[in-house]
Design a protein that fits this description.
Keywords: Cell projection, Cytoplasm, Cytoskeleton
Region (Disordered): 567-597
Domain CFAP91: 1-154
Number of helices: 12
Organism: Schistosoma bovis
Mean pLDDT: 76
Order of helices and strands: EEHHHHHHHHHHHH
Strand content: under 5%
Distance between the termini: 77 Å
Largest sheet: 2 strands, parallel
Structural class: mainly alpha
Protein name: Cilia- and flagella-associated protein 91
Helix content: over 70%
Length: 597
């Protein structure tokens, strides 16, 4: 038994023969072997191409013996060869640098792996320490718990073993505590606190008669009959200020109802305002009597400013005698008299100054009764107009408030919509920027992948071409080898077979000649009978069978023609009869040899 590792891993390279005058390029790659240059990589292909170019350049150079006496050609040849050497050294330096870079990358990867292994070891050590500390803590907690349970059991045993001590009744403590049995005795002990509760029943007219109840209700305040329970309104909005989903439909219905109600109300108000304005315009037109009796506003009417009140005299509570009290009362009386006289003097002085106004007002009030009635009517009209104006102003303010509410709602909705649109646009721009960045990264990665794929494809094609050339070389070698060997084998086998066939054919001819010389009449008849039996009789049987099949098919074919064509069948009947006669005649002629035989 053999393992797979013991099997052959290097590809088989057969022996080869180089013909004279051939200079195979493959033989110049003998330094390459499997594992050391094979399969061929990109650097090996470049090196082979450079060597091929150098050989071509060297082959194109004139031989040295032809230019031995020409110094210019020698210098040119030396320059070309030096350029080739420099180029070779340049590529060699690049290969060394690439190898150094690969080695550096390998060293960096090894260092990273070592650092990673070190970190993993540190983390494992920390995890182990942590697990150990957790186990220790659990052990300590378990011990503390067991100790706590033991101490608790000891306390329970001590409590059960303790004796019950009886204390005497403390009268002071019983009356000091409202919860004692003195104030609230237990019924199970035979004490019934509500035994004589009927003595404490209150009987009056308010609770025993209907009139008393009515009187009591009349005396009670109004809020006593009104419930003060306030239902908590449901929270329609969230913490962020947005309306909840289940209340959106209700709010839309409420807004629709409010808009419809307010539109109807605004229409009514506009109609009312129009009618009021028309009525006011009609009332503002004065009549002829009003124009004649209209009075001018007094010219000397002025507003009298009231004097500031005097400050209150502070009183000092002191212990006074009767004499001092009498003096104080006299002083207060004197002050009142002086103050009254001063006010009276001011009144007279004002009357003197406003004498003309007083006279004018007296003349105004001294009108006739008709004029006074007219004045009253004008006053009532003015008051009515003022009330109408106030009502109109109130209605205008109400309409302005309603319109302002509509405007506020529309502005709030508009600003809310604009803020949400702004947030949406900002989010859309951010997402668009992220999409552009992702698209750019995707294109960069696609370009990198495309470059890598192209490099891999080119490397693969080069490897395939190299492999094809190597396989072709192997096949050509094997073909030339096999052609040489097969040619020799075929020639020898052909000679041998030709000799055998010639000897066999000579023997057969000799036997046939002897048979012809020794053949009698019986052998001749047997030979003729075999020829007739093997060739003539099968041919006649085959012809008769084919004729029988054709006759059988003709019957069905004639029936089909008769059904399809109909009236034209009679015309074709003559032809078929003649054909049948010919066939019968042919049958009789062909059947005679069989009968004869």
């Amino acid at each position: 038994m053999y393992r797979d590792s013991e099997a052959q891993t290097d590809p088989y390279s057969p022996l080869y023969v180089v013909n004279t005058g051939e200079n195979l390029e493959t033989l110049k790659l003998t330094s390459l072997s499997y594992g050391y240059g094979l399969p061929v990589g990109l650097f090996d292909v470049e090196r082979i191409e450079r060597a091929r170019q150098r050989r071509e350049i060297e082959e194109n150079l004139p031989p040295y013996k032809d230019i031995a006496n020409n110094l210019v050609q020698i210098a040119k040849r030396r320059k070309i060869l030096e350029g080739l050497e420099n180029r070779e050294w340049y590529f060699r330096e690049r290969e060394v640098e690439a190898m150094q870079e690969v080695r550096l990358n390998v060293i960096v990867q090894l260092l990273r792996r070592r650092e990673q292994r070190k970190q993993e070891a540190i983390s494992r050590r920390l995890d182990q320490k942590w697990s150990e500390s957790c186990a220790q803590n659990e052990t300590k907690c378990r011990a503390i718990k067991y100790r706590y349970i033991g101490e608790l059991r000891k306390l329970l045993k001590l409590r059960l073993a303790a004796k019950e001590y009886k204390f005497k009744r403390d009268m002071i403590m019983d009356y000091a505590k409202p919860s004692s049995q003195v104030f609230a005795p237990l019924t199970r002990l035979g004490v019934f606190p509500d035994r004589s509760s009927e003595r404490y029943v209150v009987k009056n007219i308010y609770s025993s008669r209907y009139e008393g109840l009515l009187t009591l209700e009349a005396r009670l305040p109004r809020f006593a009959f009104q419930p003060r329970i306030r239902l908590q309104q449901p929270k329609l909005h969230t913490k962020d200020g947005f309306l909840k989903r289940k209340y959106r439909h209700q709010k839309e219905l409420a807004e629709l109802h409010d808009k419809r109600f307010l539109s109807c109300k605004i229409g009514k108000l506009i109609n009312f305002f129009v009618s009021k304005q028309l009525h006011a315009q009609y009332l503002q037109k004065p009549s002829v009597s009003e124009r004649n009796t209209a009075l001018r506003k007094p010219r000397f009417l002025q507003k009298i400013e009231k004097p500031m009140p005097r400050p209150i005299t502070s009183d000092y509570i002191t212990i006074k005698s009767e004499e001092s009290e009498r003096q104080e009362v006299a002083v207060i009386m004197l002050q009142q008299l002086i103050r009254g006289r001063a006010i009276q003097t001011q009144m007279y002085e004002g009357k003197r100054k406003r004498s003309e106004l007083i006279a004018e007002s007296r003349s105004t009030h001294a009108l006739l009764e008709d004029e006074q009635a007219q004045k009253k009517r004008e006053k009532l009209t003015i008051l009515t107009k003022q009330e109408d104006l106030g009502y109109l102003l109130h209605q205008e303010r109400l309409v302005e408030d309603i319109l302002g509410q509509f405007e506020c709602d529309s502005l709030a909705n508009m600003l809310d919509f604009l803020s949400k649109e702004l947030d949406r646009l900002i989010e859309e721009r951010r997402i668009h920027a992220l999409v552009l960045i992702a698209e750019r990264q995707r294109r960069i990665r696609e370009a990198e992948e495309c470059g890598t794929r192209q490099k891999e494809e080119r490397r693969r094609r080069e490897q395939d071409e190299i492999f094809k050339q190597l396989v072709k070389v192997h096949e050509d070698t094997v073909d030339s080898y096999l052609i040489n060997i097969a040619g020799l084998a075929v020639n020898s086998a052909a000679d041998y077979l030709a000799k055998e066939e010639i000897s066999t054919l000579a023997q057969k001819i000799e036997q046939a000649n002897l048979y012809e010389l020794n053949r009698g009449e019986l052998e001749t008849n047997e030979l003729a009978a075999e020829l007739i039996h093997n060739f003539l009789i099968p041919f006649v049987n085959k012809s008769s069978h084919e004729l029988h099949e054709e006759r059988r098919k003709r019957k069905y074919l004639n029936g089909a023609h008769r059904e399809i064509w109909g009236p034209s069948h009679d015309a074709s009947g003559n032809v078929s009869d003649s054909t049948g006669l010919q066939l019968k005649h042919h049958d009789t002629t062909t059947s005679t040899p069989n009968v004869w035989w």
